[in-house]
Write a structure and sequence with these properties.
This protein has 3 helices and 10 strands, in the order H-E-E-H-H-E-E-E-E-E-E-E-E. By secondary structure, the protein is of the alpha+beta class. The chain has one domain. Strands 5-6-2-1-8-9 form a 6-stranded mixed beta sheet. Strands 4-3-7-10 form a 4-stranded antiparallel beta sheet. Strand 5 and strand 6 form a beta hairpin. The chain is globular and about 50 Å long. The N and C termini lie far apart (about 70 Å).
């Protein structure tokens, strides 16, 4: 092997290795559970930190960092703003608003805790989940519902980002 080929390999290998560290799939999981005794809908959205950071940077602040010592004080409000724009719910045909309770970082995922109060019963629930769909072409959002004795999951993509569950 001549020196030119050897030099090219030395240059190309680090580039290939660095690209392989980027995850190959883009997915979020949003779990929705109805706490009948508390009359609340409890929601947990799990999103890859680096993907969420990219979305927040593109929309609000290019210098934003998540999960670091220098995290800006405004991160929670920016997360809430983004989620309220991308995640919509309707209970019994009426749009409902969630409250952003907070977030937690575990490994490479941010867990966003949301709650909808004063829900006395559920005949139907509809979700529109467009989290990161405008950022990544292959983004998939999984919605898991646990309401009464029903457990149901849906896969949402850019072409179909809504699901509905009836209980009548």
């Amino acid at each position: 092997m001549n020196k030119l080929n050897y030099a090219l390999i030395l240059l190309i290998v680090p580039v290939v290795l660095s690209v392989s560290k980027v995850h190959e799939y883009y997915v979020s999981v949003t779990s929705v559970e109805y706490a009948k005794d508390q009359q609340t809908i409890q929601i947990i959205s799990q999103i890859f930190i680096d993907d969420f950071e990219q979305a927040l940077r593109m929309r609000y602040d290019e210098n934003l960092l998540l999960a670091g010592e220098n995290e800006m004080e405004s991160v929670n409000s920016l997360m809430e703003r983004y989620l309220k724009a991308k995640l919509k719910l309707w209970v019994n045909g009426e749009e409902v608003q969630f409250q952003f309770l907070g977030k937690e970082y575990k490994e490479d995922i941010v867990y966003c805790y949301l709650e909808i109060a004063d829900v006395s019963y559920i005949d139907s629930i509809t979700m529109s989940n467009k989290i990161l769909l405008d950022i990544f072409d292959t983004q998939q959002n999984i919605a898991r519902f646990k309401i009464s004795d029903k457990n149901k999951s849906f896969l949402m993509v850019r072409e179909n980002a809504e699901c509905m569950l009836n209980f009548d």
